[in-house]
Write a sequence for this structure.
């Protein structure tokens, strides 16, 4: 947080980065050790909501259910940093 604040980023920007980072960590943890002990899958998401009512969600299921959390974290952090650079 200090590095971003000292670089002149607004507190809202800093907290957004922190929240996204923490959220990703919680999501990864939940996927690895779900409450019910059964890992979630694309089929679990499909069963909860019919594809015809949410076609975009259904089309993006391979990405939504990707478990390469290291790659996803790096991508998301890069996206956030790129957006911050563009605004700063």
């Amino acid at each position: 947080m200090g590095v971003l604040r000292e670089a002149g980023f607004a507190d809202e920007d800093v907290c957004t980065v922190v929240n996204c980072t923490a959220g990703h960590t919680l999501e990864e943890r939940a996927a690895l050790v779900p409450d019910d002990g059964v890992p979630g899958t694309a089929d679990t998401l499909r069963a909860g909501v019919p594809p015809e009512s949410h076609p975009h969600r259904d089309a993006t299921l391979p990405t939504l259910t990707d478990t390469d959390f290291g790659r996803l974290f790096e991508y998301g952090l890069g996206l956030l940093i790129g957006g911050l650079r563009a605004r700063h």
Summary: The two ends are 16 Å apart (CA to CA). The mean pLDDT is 83. DSSP finds six helices and no strands in the chain. The CA atoms of residues 42 and 65 lie 6 Å apart.
